[in-house]
Amino acid sequence: MSTFNWESFLRRWSQELLGSMGDEQAELPPEVIESGWLGYPGATEEQITQVEARLGMILPPSYRAFLKVTNGWRQTTPLIDRLWSTNEIEWFAVRHQNWIDAFLEQNKDRYSPVSETQLESNAHLGAPSISDEEYLVYGEAQDCSKLRVEYLQAALEISDVGESAIYLLNPQVVTDDGEWEAWFFGDWLPGADRYPSFHAMMQAEYENFLELRENSLRLAETNASAPLPVDSKEDKAESSVIAPISSLAVNPEEDKAESLRILPVEETVWRSLARFTIEFQTRQIEDQIEKRIVAYDPEGESSRTWSELESEQLPQWMLAQISQAVKPETEIKRPADVSPVKVEISHLWAFQPPQSGAPMVITEAGKSFPGFIRSGEPLVLEILFRLTGQTAADTRRKQITYQVQADLRNYATGSTTSLVDTPPHTLVEDQLSYIATIPGTTLLPGIYRLRVLATLQGIRATPGYFETPLLQVI
To answer: Using CA atoms, how far apart are residues 38 and 32, in angstroms rounded to an integer?
Structure first.
């Protein structure tokens, strides 16, 4: 695809992206807005050959041609913020081995036929895990779950992690003209959206951007011409008890890290020592506003809550967790027979109106709602989650509570709406399955991403996370 006019294509995309950003333009350098170009100066042949020497492979033609026009890129869709420059591209496993391991663990039932040799090798050995007839399918007929997961170890990452998604190039599937297979790999997908080349993926992403923009504009026009719901604005503010989630981890490395052990790596490479999730929450009860801080590590193995936002104890608690993380592996490794408690969200029901007997149901994270939500009408969510691991014995020994929180991010405006979270509920002895209800909330028209987080307090536990990438409110 070296004859494709990348400059014309990208300049048109730049202008349309800038026109759709609105207030988000303020985050860009003034010269970018003035030039109407979201790219950078093109890479030289020397820069490209240097990265090819570092990788030990010749880059595919369409991606090479793209780099010569712009050495990196600022944004394609709301899901991907940046494409890497030649200095930044790297093998996926170098930066994100935790993501690969977590994906394989989460989908071990789906991809169990894959052998350890195939997963660990950077070269294609033996028969592939999926036949060519099933795998080499592109376009609308493709099933994104038909993934040769053994290719993840050898994939090349060419973008930053956006909304739990990344662009990858796969050098193990190459066309006759030298193009590598290209992947849109999302943490909320059962596999990856695959394309026969980088050029084909960028064309599809441009079409996705146009479709998302048109839907957002159409919904905005509908909203502007429609009367406001009776319970919006002041009425809604008075009736809602809001406990916003200010920070939900969406980076797969943070969400699914398997341990805090220090890995034996080269001294020049920075590796994570410890990670924390800090939530600043508030709620209104009658005329009083309560505030608190909730802090826990990525696996929920230790957590603390402070009643005021200005807590001097927060950094002390974090330092205490870090001091435990630097202990030798033999001191912090769990016994082989201990299975940590995990919260696994399996179902999400959406009722509208709340008394409806036929809700919309989602049974797999990463799937879109099978219909649409009406604005101005209360939406009630019910979440089914199950506790796994050493649950029965631990629940008998201590009082444990669970809480479910959710938020919605509007793709068009970038704003986040926090839904009313559930109050803490105490676990029932020996009961493993629970249904939590998030009370009715009215939404404005738009296209949203829904995120749900279920946590346990009073026990070491991995939080449950469930994400629905597209929810349409009309």
So the answer is: 6
pTM assigned to the model: 0.51
* 3-class SS of residue 122: coil
3-state DSSP call for residue 90? Answer: strand
Q: How many helices (H) and strands (E) does the chain have?
A: 13, 19
Residue 319 Cα to chain centre, angstroms = 28
CA distance 230 to 222: 17
What are the DSSP calls for 238-303, one per residue?
A: HH------S-----HHHHS----PPP---TTS-------EEEEEEEEETTEEEEEEEEE-TT-SSE
- Model confidence over 407-446: pLDDT tens digits? 888 877 777 888 877 888 888 877 888 888 888 788 888 8
Any idea how long the chain is?
474
Question: 111 with 144: CB under 8 angstroms?
Answer: no
Q: Which long-range contacts (CB under 8 A, 24 or more apart) does 321-324 make?
A: 321/274, 321/276, 321/297, 322/273, 322/274, 324/260
Radius of gyration of the chain (CA): 24
DSSP character for 326? T
CA-wise closest residue to 436 among 415, 456, 414, 417: 456
Rounded to whole angstroms, the Cα distance separating 291 from 165 reads 33
Largest Cα–Cα separation, the chain? 70
- Show the tokens assigned to 127: 């028969």
Return the DSSP state at 334. Answer: P
Residues 461 and 455 sit within 8 Å (Cβ to Cβ): yes
Digit-coded pLDDT (tens) for 267-286: 455 566 677 777 777 777 77
CA distance 120 to 100: 11
Give the separation between CA 182 and CA 176, rounded to whole angstroms: 15
Say if residues 195 and 182 touch (Cβ distance below 8 Å). yes
- Helix/strand/coil (H, E, C) string of 368-428? CCCCEECCCCCEEEEEEEEEECCHHHHHHHCCCEEEEEEEEEECCCCCEEECCCCCCEECC
Q: What is the DSSP letter of 192?
A: -
CB 370 within 8 A of CB 360: yes
Contacts of 390 (CB under 8 A, 6+ apart): 338, 339, 340, 341
Domains of the chain: 6-209 (3.40.1580.10), 227-235+338-473 (2.60.40.10), 237-332 (no CATH)
Q: Residue 2 region, left (φ>0) first, then alpha (ψ -120 to 50), else beta?
A: alpha
- Looking at residues 138-148, what average pLDDT do you find? 89
Q: Rounded to whole angstroms, how far apart are CA atoms 159 and 167?
A: 5
| H or E stretch covering 156 | strand 156-157
